[in-house]
Write a structure and sequence with these properties.
Layout lengths: L14 H5 L2 E2 L3 E2 L6 E2 L5 E5 L5 E4 L1 E3 L13 E2 L5 E7 L2 E8 L5 E5 L5 E5 L4 E5 L5 E5 L3 E6 L7 E5 L2 E4 L4 E9 L2 E9 L4 E6 L7 E8 L7 E8 L5 E6 L4 E8 L2 E6 L5 E7 L6 E7 L4 E7 L4 E6 L4 E6 L5 E5 L5 E6 L5 E5 L5 E6 L5 E5 L5 E6 L6 E5 L5 E6 L5 E5 L5 E3 L8
Antiparallel strand pairs: 1-2, 3-6, 4-5, 6-7, 8-9, 8-15, 9-10, 11-12, 12-13, 13-14, 14-16, 16-17, 17-18, 18-19, 19-20, 20-21, 21-22, 22-23, 23-24, 24-25, 25-26, 26-27, 27-28, 28-29, 29-30, 30-31, 31-32, 32-33, 33-34, 34-35, 35-36, 36-37, 37-38, 38-39
């Protein structure tokens, strides 16, 4: 799987190279998929020790049929586990994350866990049989116990909790043959209710703040409208403004309108999750064509001015070779754990990266041999020290729940942080 392109592995080379992997509001140039990363699709945020951030992601690679907003769409509560059994025994588990990516794990038995180095995630099965996904940001996603012995079973999110015990619970209901989330309740005391579309009982029509905190009034936070096929067509915010609109053909997004009115269009080759965008344009003149040679794992991108860029990738769909419009060449090398181990810029300068057995970056070595090192604790994967090429050291300390309690700079000046039981 191609990991989230915002993970920062290429940050040392500058944001230009990293950003150029996405084109066309945006298109993933390697997979050819249409992506919306949530930046323009955050429908509401409710503050708190564990904030409720209602952000929609779109990926044309997400082909789950029971999406809350139609094909390709997901929100944070859309995460789920899919168990596959043979002769009654679980043999594999697929985790669908917040961005609609499917990540395959081996089976884990009660009391066991599996850590994915490339993803930085634990899949845990507690002694009581609850399946939990833990990510490096300290969030735990509880999916409960398996409830059948069917060949396939999907476990929906039941509870999201951080290391300080702040939580958001999801209550599900049955409507005919559909199991769907009905309410969200958080540790701050809020209650949110989900209303569903009459014609499409799996699709959310509105999110209501039923019980607020700190003076919040009950209100409709967002409304959604759908096509006859059950595809998300329009989003109306709490002020009554319909700022986001979407159009589809053959189950793939071919047009979307931003809040400012800009319209973006897409032409496709193929169908289903492996379809590729071959042309993109906007009503203000921006345009790209994408000419992919899948045998050579290469894509050529031409913009509205005739400027050409190229990307080449490996079998894991990681970029290995990039030529920009001026002919400058970057080279990227990856290891078997899908970690970037070297990057060569157009001047031939090589930056190298080292990692520990848990996939945490421990060293960054530039072309002059200068090294920046990082040290980590052994439990929560938290940064405890940064050492620059002059051996100057920055120190970080945490409490038992992983909250930052102290920082100390190379001159010895320390800053302490005092927190309440919620981690604030």
């Amino acid at each position: 799987k191609l990991p989230c392109l915002g993970i920062g592995l290429l940050a040392g080379l500058g944001g230009t190279l990293l950003g150029s992997l996405m084109r066309g509001h945006p298109v993933n140039v390697i997979t050819g998929g249409k992506i919306l990363d949530g930046a323009d699709d955050t429908d509401f945020e409710l503050p708190g020790p564990l904030p409720i951030v209602w952000r929609r992601f779109y990926s044309s690679h997400d082909d789950r049929a029971d999406s809350l907003f139609g094909p390709g769409w997901s929100v944070p509560i859309s995460v789920e586990l899919q168990l596959v059994r043979e002769r009654g025994e679980v043999v594999s588990i697929t985790y669908w994350d917040e961005q609609g990516r499917d990540i395959v794990y081996p089976a884990v038995s009660p009391g066991e866990s599996h850590y994915s180095v490339p993803e930085g995630m634990y899949l845990i099965c507690t002694a009581g049989g609850h399946y939990v996904v833990e990510t490096v940001d300290g969030l735990y996603r509880d999916f409960g116990r398996a409830r059948t012995i069917a060949d396939t079973e999907t476990l929906k999110l039941r509870r999201l909790e951080d290391r300080n015990g702040n939580w958001i619970e999801v209550t599900h209901e049955t409507a005919g043959d559909v199991i769907r989330p009905a309410r969200l309740h958080d540790s701050a005391g809020r209650l949110l209710t989900l209303a569903y579309d009459d014609a499409h009982p799996q699709r959310i029509a509105a999110v209501e703040l039923t019980l607020g905190v700190d003076g919040e009034q009950s209100e409709t936070l967002v409304r959604y409208a759908y096509t006859d096929a059950g595809e998300l067509a329009a989003v109306t915010d709490r002020s009554g403004h319909t700022g986001r609109k979407f159009v589809y053909e053959h189950g793939l997004m071919v047009q979307h309108t931003l809040r400012g009115g800009l319209q973006c269009f897409y032409a496709w080759q193929g169908t289903g999750r492996d379809a590729r965008v071959v042309r993109h344009w906007t009503d203000d003149g921006e345009a790209y064509t994408f000419d992919a040679d899948l045998t050579q794992r290469e894509v050529t991108i031409t913009d509205q001015l005739g400027r050409i860029t190229r990307w080449t990738w490996n079998e894991d769909r990681q970029p290995t070779h990039h030529v920009d419009a001026e002919g400058h060449v970057w080279l990227l090398e990856w290891n078997a754990m899908r970690q970037l181990i070297s990057a060569t810029d157009p001047a031939g300068h090589v930056t190298r990266f080292e990692y520990d057995e848990r996939g945490r970056q421990t060293a960054r070595i530039d072309a002059l041999g200068q090294t920046v090192r990082t040290e980590w604790n052994g439990f929560y994967d938290l940064l405890v020290a940064e050492i620059d090429p002059t051996n100057a050291r920055w120190i970080y300390r945490y409490d038992a729940r992983g909250n930052l309690t102290m920082t100390r700079d190379p001159a010895g000046f320390a800053t302490e942080y005092h927190r309440d039981e919620r981690g604030l």
